[in-house]
Fold this protein.
Amino acid sequence: MIGVASYIAYRSDGRRAARLTAELPATITEVYVSRDRNNEEARPGRINGVRVTYQYSISGRSYTRTSSFGRNVGMNFREGGAAKVCYNPENPEEAELSEMNRLCER
């Protein structure tokens, strides 16, 4: 059953990504790093994930979105830094934050 649910989620993500054909610059407004806590020494532990809030504008309308990433991708984003948004030109609210070197679906 888990395999079927995973396949459906994968297909859904693939169809969504195929609609995100346009791209434009985005500004990173916040980067939140989620970490394990090492209670014995009260210091941060391993990074669990990264939540990135970003802004972009299309045709004079501004959008603010938040995306979650694993540490390998998420740590590439910096607050105040530039990134890229891949979005659906028919529905600009449908968007995904991307690293600058990644191509949007075409």
